[in-house]
Amino acid sequence: MGNLLYGLGLEIPFEDRALAHLQLVITAKLRRGESFVFSWRDEASGGRNTIWLDRAVPLQFSYDGGKMPAINRLWIDELAVSASSAQGLFLTPEPSPDDR
To answer: Which residue ranges does the record assign to the DUF7882 domain (predicted)?
Structure first.
C-alpha cells in the first residue's frame, strides 16, 4: 500500500499498482500544465473524495514495494480519457486484457 502525498499534509493511500498507473496519468497532465480534478472512492466510509490537482502544489508518490508494477496500457488509456473529461480523473477498477 503506497500513498499519494499532496500539498501540506494530505496523504491518500492507494495500492502500489493503482498508484503507479495514477502517477503516469497525473504526471503527464501536470507536465503539460493542465490542472484537473481527481476523484476516488473512500473504501472505509463508502464515500467519495475529490481534489484539484495543480502543478504548483507539491506532489509525491510513495510506494511500499521496491519494484515498479507491470503497466496495463488499457488502464492508462481509460484513466487518461477520464482525466481529460469535464468530470476529471476518476480511479476506476483495472480492466482485464479481455476488455478490449
So the answer is: 1-94
